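Trying the structure run again after the queue cleared.
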Amino acid sequence: MNTSQRADPLIGRLVDGRYRVRARIARGGMATVYVATDLRLERRVALKVMHGHLSDDTVFQSRFIQEARAAARLADPHVVNVFDQGQDDDMAYLVMEYLPGITLRELMREQKRLSIPQTITIMDAILSGLAAAHRADIVHRDVKPENVLLAEDGRIKIGDFGLARATTANTASGAMLLGTIAYLAPELVTRGSADARSDIYALGIMLYEMLTGEQPYKGEQPMQIAYQHATDSVPRPSAKNPGVPEQLDELVLWATERSPDARPLDADEMLRRLREIEAELGIAPQVARTLAVGTAVADDILDSGELTKALPAAALTGAVATSPDADNATLLRRATRRRSTRGGWLFALVLLLAVVAGGAGWFFGSGPGSLVGVPAVAGLSFEQAQAALSEEGLVAERAEEYSLDIAAGTVIRTEPDGGARVDKESTVRVVVSLGPAPHDLPALGGMPVAQATAALQAAVVAVGDPQYVFTDAAPDTVVAASLTPRGATDAVDCTGGCTVHEGDAAVLTVSKGPLPDVSGMGVTEATSVLTDVGMKVDSIEEFSDDVDKGDVVGIVARDGGGDWRPGETVTLRVSKGPQLFAVPDVTKMTRDQAKNALEKAGFQVSYNASWNLFPDAVTQVTAQNPTAGSSHPRGTTVTLSISGSF
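Done. Tokens:
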């Protein structure tokens, strides 16, 4: 057993009085998986133990228990069985069936792309297991090659329902998109919602990868890959591998449609089509076999990628293989056979081993090789952690990584974990939080709102409800973007692009197009047009020389200026027609007196031009039309009758 295996405090422990931990299989972000023996039923099981630093997190605890309940509801030969779930002191655990073998990811690493029979065999099994989940109204939400297990005895199973949830609870926080980005359905990127068709999309990506040996979308940043999921279409696998039949081409394209409504409804429907394809191609699913090389159990802190190795040529072609050291039971049988031939020298060997064991016990228990425990320093500063490790004779090596949940400058974890026992003067890797990861966003102004939302969500930025305004820009185009850093109250402008950090919040201002022009319409029609676009309507009346009475002259300017927003009140300026004025009485006035009086009142004057030849003093107005006192608009012409007063 290697150092890290020996240092793991759980190895050898009896969990809940029933499960004896034998060795560590793999370690992930949420839990560590061990091989254990169920002493009650005398069988080997896989024990999945939640990491200690997550034990106080109710969200992770509930997700851990959710995995047990979701998988336990399924009884299908292609789903990893969950036998038990429990709590031993502060340790939460699941008990699952133990399947020696490899994952689909390891097989693809070994072979790059798979043959058509291999692909059909694996896809048929995965769809069978997932169909059982969908029939039970369970969405897996994390379908990927790492969660498909290929057992040595030929079984193919899907596991890890840690993200699963009922199809009726299908929303996720925009700031916390779970799952693996390479297999994330477009609706999870743009809306954060998922159903059975989201699992189908992930299956389509997996099918493409098995047929071509690579994923359809690549990028240096997760945001770039998420953006491709939301905006691009998966190409035909035959473009990369001409040997792919057209039927499998079409199955990939059907499963990876960007719109969920265009995909198979669930795994049952996709499985039916796959089996039609099997009949058309004359290919039946084969019995899958894998071979474990050696008996060592991996201690890889990232995944179980080094646990087993796949047979290069016949891993899935139905060949039956055995290994001389395949498992502990085989070793025990061989040891028993060898005992009969060893003779009397065995006793001497036992004595020698006892002496060596005693010396080793002294060396490692109280001598110079004694081990020390790694102190728990999560939550401290690096300097505090360094001092605590130094007190135990250990050397701290600083490492950094971004964290959405742990404040910058705070220790996230140590490697090995706190509580592990290591040699004195060992180097312990202390991982310190850099705070939320930064992402550089392009200019959001001018983008379609769906594209801008996808870019923000891919950067793990929470996107609030858009604020709509009426502008000259095309409808559903972003005209402004404001960003509020996590923990802050003041927003900053991100319209022209900016650097964001995971956990920030953003609000997009989106154009609804221009506000309708209702000038010249009747009041009823104008009111209907404006209420149809979400506006409230009020009105005032005013005189207008140009617009007929009862029609709309225009709208009152928005208070404070700026763009109109849906829900605001627009005030219509309604014409009362032209304003009327009384015609003054100019009879008995001279020509010029009458003319001046009428023009001052806003009226035009008309009379026989020949009277301009006479001096004003000898002229007198004898009549006028319109008559004095009648009301008329300004600019009305008043005709005068003039006579001489000689």
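The CA atoms of residues 114 and 210 lie 5 Å apart. Worth checking whether this holds up in the mutant runs.
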